[in-house]
Amino acid sequence: MTALQPVRGMRDLIGEDARRHRHVIETARRVADLWGFDAWETPVLEDTRVFSRTLGDTSDVVTKEMYSFEDRGGDSVTLRPENTAGVCRALVSNGLTQSLPQKVFYAGPMFRYERPQKGRYRQFHQIGIETLGAAEPLADAEVIACGFEILTALGVAEGTVLEVNTLGDAESRAAYRAALVSFLRQHEASLSEESRERLARNPLRVLDSKDAKDRAIVADAPDIFAHLTDAARAHWEGVLAALDAFGVPHRVNPRIVRGLDYYSHTAFEFVTDRLGAQGTVMAGGRYDGLVEEMGGPPTPSVGWAAGIERLAMLLAEAPPAPSPVAVIPVGEAAEKVALSVMTTLRRAGVRAEMAFRGNLKRRMERANKTGARTAVILGEAELAAGTAQVKDLRSGAQEAVPLEALAARLGG
Ligand code: ATP
Ligand code: MG
């Protein structure tokens, strides 16, 4: 029979890959916890409308990347392509719109049907945080600063740059859109086909084009700052001042617009040049209308998501493989004692392993293969004395230790 493969664009995480992945999640969870964000888990599968209502008709995600299908009951469901919409849906479904602000951390798989390449998969994973129900510029700055601390804790902040922009409020954006469209119309003939289409449907997205010719045109496009209303400008300046106060280095980049349509005011990305074309590691912004789209009250919110695969690739060093204590019994009676010795060690927080079979030599070979640093050898003489030989597998040094002292000796 032919061996089966994972679905295209999806991959198994094993060994070092799994350790890198887990390290990213655990580090992020620890930092987010210190910043007051609570972990939420929402379902991987949602009513398709959770995304079609919110991500915008012109976003790449909705137009071509969603895994949507009819379930056996005839309902249209979608494997979540991102988690912000799901978190907003959960806020409303769980009646939490009167208990604001809510500060949320999440981690989990996302699904997008896009062309697989390095750093781009069809099942990928994100960590993210959201602050729901806070309109203050301080909320924008806090989620960004927490993101920066997570990157710092992972040791990847040094190679990344925070780029921030504002998309203003609806009034600012309408004025800016008019100015942008009139500029882009003058260059319409030279724009890529995709950008010409975006010009008609969602002109701000032209700023996000990856096409080299488009980028050259866009470099001279007007930026939004001249079109900000007083309120939008005050918000923007408040965010920048709070970022300074948090000590988060940043660069203003008027070309940052996010791929999803729900953003207003702050938009930002942490980018790196160490991942080739897939240079965005963390991205987000303010989305003030999303909770309403889910049937809730107006709930100004802000957050970001980061690709775990990209963060895992950036880690300077892989988290080390665990190094167990190898328990090595000699003879049947010793094997029984070994089981209770292992339980004692494991309860004391020591990773303990024993081969399922084999003589002393075989089990020693196996211990070396698993990267054990220490062997606990239980022979007949040791059993009689109520001790074990504890052998340092690197130096070869060996000494007898009473069984009841093993956990204290090997713990930590
Ligand atoms: P891109 O411009 O790279 O397609 P995006 O705007 O679609 O990114 P977001 O929806 O903002 O990305 O997702 C946030 C982060 O999630 C990205 O910055 C990236 O790190 C990660 N990400 C997005 N899509 C993928 C994917 N298909 N595979 C791996 N990581 C991804
Ligand atoms: Mg994308």
Report on this structure.
The protein has 412 residues and is α+β, with helices and mostly antiparallel strands. The protein folds into 2 domains: 16-169 and 229-314, Bira Bifunctional Protein, Domain 2 (BirA Bifunctional Protein, domain 2), CATH 3.30.930.10; 325-411, Rossmann fold, CATH 3.40.50.800. 37% of the residues lie in helices and 22% in strands. The protein contains 15 helices and 16 strands. It has helices spanning 16-34, 49-52, 60-65, 84-93, 137-153, 170-185, 193-201, 212-218, 230-246, 290-293, 308-314, 332-347, 360-369, 380-385, 406-410, and strands at residues 38-39, 45-47, 67-70, 76-79, 102-111, 123-132, 160-166, 251-252, 264-272, 280-287, 301-307, 325-329, 352-353, 374-378, 387-392, 398-402. An 8-stranded mixed sheet has the order 1-5-6-11-10-9-7-8. It has a 5-stranded mixed sheet with strand order 13-12-14-15-16, with helices on both faces. It has a 3-stranded antiparallel sheet with strand order 2-4-3. The longest helix has 19 residues, at 16-34. It is elongated and about 90 Å long. 38% of the residues are buried. The model has no long low-confidence stretch (mean pLDDT 94).
List keywords for this structure.
5-stranded mixed beta sheet, Rossmann fold, 2 domains, BirA Bifunctional Protein, domain 2, alpha+beta, 8-stranded mixed beta sheet, 15 helices
